[in-house]
Design goal:
This is Xaa-Pro dipeptidyl-peptidase-like domain-containing protein. It comes from Nocardioides panacihumi. Belongs to the AB hydrolase superfamily. InterPro entries: AB_hydrolase_fold (IPR029058), FrsA_esterase (IPR050261), Xaa-Pro-like_dom (IPR000383). The chain has 12 helices and 25 strands. The protein folds into 3 domains: 296 residues, Alpha/Beta hydrolase fold, catalytic domain (Rossmann fold, 3-Layer(aba) Sandwich); 53 residues, no CATH class; 130 residues, Galactose-binding domain-like (Jelly Rolls), CATH 2.60.120. The longest helix is centred in the first third of the chain and has 17 residues. Strands 1, 2, 3, 4, 5, 6, 9 and 10 form an 8-stranded mixed sheet that branches. It has 519 residues and is an alpha+beta fold.
């Protein structure tokens, strides 16, 4: 999984061993860096892959700041990489240096199937595999005499990382809740990660072909072969592989438990502060994935102490069709830190919740969303509060220019999630259409806001079927002289050009758009 360079990197019967053992890897066991940080490289034995017996070694680099001693214990921060990457071994790297400079210990690890943890396959944050891996690392940290401990087996610990490096934070935190019935992590800062992995890879069971192929290529040596087969087939055909056709792979079964959505369905919630960083222009894990984590994965108490940052960035590929706006930048972190970045905000967040310092931490229990124009909008709610008529919204019969319908004149400010409702008629088979909000002076020059479109699909013909379509979550200021549009198109390049199997317009009559208008 990939991200803009400016954003932090980027995706049953196994019994837990009762004893954690560590073994040295080929690198020297300890190296004294010029910064005064001691680096130690080790591996820890974790649970075997399914249908195997050999433990999988999870390898890590442990960074101990110069002032950390048994008499002066410090909190620990876990870090891990994005999909297809590997851990950080250099204490001067930008991934870990801000936290070492602030006096935190850092443990950066290779996730199962990647880097030197290549004795197993990547099961994409499965609770029984990658979840157990994180538990092993927490146990290692709990035995370090220079790390602050809140109790037996309970180190003072936070976590950083983006994309797949955000996924481990959730699976690790939920695994500890399931096994110990308590919170072990004290603060999380996941960036550009998911709530529902299936919905991210194939919303409405329409595969994001461009991203599914990229995911498969980056994980070619790590993924189980059957998953590579299923993702490749889905991307090639434009139909999600769910095992219903004999001989095909059931990707639904593979991905079902691999995200906070499933954990929440089991009655688990995170009750510690979380600093979210989510890309609004992110095409793989869009803004709505972070918003759903906020709304569903956290307890009300946790939300009161948490902060949500939406920035322009994340997993982004060049868009050619339809006409879109893909800005970059993080004005909201800059606003909350006096001109600094998300890493500086993260250090301040950890100082408050790991060191329990009385640092100024504005913006808690709020959404801070970067607009398409590069400003920051802060709101208490991202839910729609205004419904406007849209008449008839329809797509071209096949590939062709997006059709735009004006729904509001500027000035108007939108921040959050909108919904398109109405009665859908589509007479073809395996019908698909793609929708988004757009801004322009007229229907011809209207540009999709912040890059994303949302699919609607129906395998059977539809005649006046009620529908409520969740549009991509965005933040935008529509100036006077311009207007807000809802656009519809038959194909979208992120989905590999796959439209309806039988050409024909998808028509929504008596359409309404519910908007989160900032008042």
């Amino acid at each position: 999984m990939f991200a803009r360079p400016a954003i932090a990197g980027v995706l049953g019967g196994v019994l837990a061993a009762t004893v954690v053992t560590t073994v040295a890897i080929t690198a020297p066991p300890a190296v004294q860096a010029a910064t005064g940080v001691t680096t130690t490289n080790r591996c820890v034995a974790s649970v075997p892959d399914p249908a195997t017996k050999a433990p999988v070694e999870i390898c890590f680099s442990l960074f101990r700041p110069a002032r950390a001693t048994k008499a002066h214990r410090v909190p620990m921060i876990l870090h891990s990489h994005g999909w297809g990457g590997s851990r950080t071994t250099d204490p001067t790297s930008p991934e870990v240096k801000p936290y070492l400079d602030a006096g935190y210990g850092v443990l950066s690890f290779d996730q199962r199937g990647f880097g030197q943890s290549n004795g197993g396959k990547a099961y994409v944050e499965n609770p029984d595999l990658e979840g157990r891996d994180v538990e092993r690392l927490v146990k290692v940290v709990s035995r370090l005499k220079w790390v602050l401990q809140d109790g037996p087996g309970d180190p003072r610990i936070g976590a950083i990382g983006g994309s797949y490096g955000g996924g481990y934070q959730f699976v690790g935190a939920f695994r500890e809740i399931a096994d110990r019935h308590k919170q072990v992590f004290d603060a999380l800062t996941p960036q550009i990660t998911w709530f529902d992995l299936k919905q991210s890879l194939a919303p409405q069971s329409v595969p994001k072909s461009e991203w599914d192929l990229a995911l498969t290529a980056a994980g070619a040596n790590a993924l189980p072969p059957q998953v590579i087969e299923g993702l490749t087939e889905s991307a090639a055909t434009g139909t999600w592989s769910n095992g219903r056709v004999p001989g095909t792979v059931d990707l639904d079964a593979f991905f079902r438990r691999n995200g906070p959505k499933w954990q929440v369905s089991q009655g688990r919630h995170i009750n510690v502060p979380v600093l979210f960083g989510q890309g609004i222009t992110d095409e793989l894990f869009p803004l709505d994935q972070g918003l759903k984590n906020w709304a569903s994965a956290l307890t009300p108490r946790a939300r009161k102490r948490s902060i949500f940052i939406g920035y322009n960035g994340g997993h982004v590929l060049p868009n050619a069709y339809p006409f879109t706006v893909q800005p970059a930048g993080d004005p909201c972190s800059a606003r909350l830190t006096g001109g600094k970045d998300f890493a500086a905000l993260t250090v301040r967040f950890f100082d408050r919740y790991l060191k329990h310092r009385s640092v100024r931490l504005p913006g808690r229990n709020r959404f801070h969303l970067a607009t398409a124009g590069g400003t920051c909008t802060t709101v208490r709610s991202v839910a729609p509060n205004t419904t406007v008529p849209a008449g008839t919204v329809l797509t071209p019969e096949a590939a062709g220019p997006a059709l735009a319908t004006k729904i509001a004149d500027g000035p108007i400010r939108i921040a959050g999630t909108s919904y398109l409702s109405g009665s859908v008629t589509a007479l073809g088979v395996n019908n698909r259409a793609f929708y988004a909000l757009a801004v322009g002076t007229n229907p011809v020059d209207a540009k999709v806001v912040q890059g994303n479109m949302a699919p609607w699909s129906s395998e059977a013909p539809a005649r006046g079927v009620p529908a409520r379509i969740e549009l991509p979550s965005v933040a935008v200021d529509v100036p006077r002289g311009q207007a807000l549009f809802v656009v519809a198109v038959a194909t979208n390049d992120m989905y590999g050009g796959f439209g309806s199997r039988t050409p024909g317009a998808v028509v929504i009559r008596n359409a309404r758009v519910s908007l989160p208008v900032v008042r």
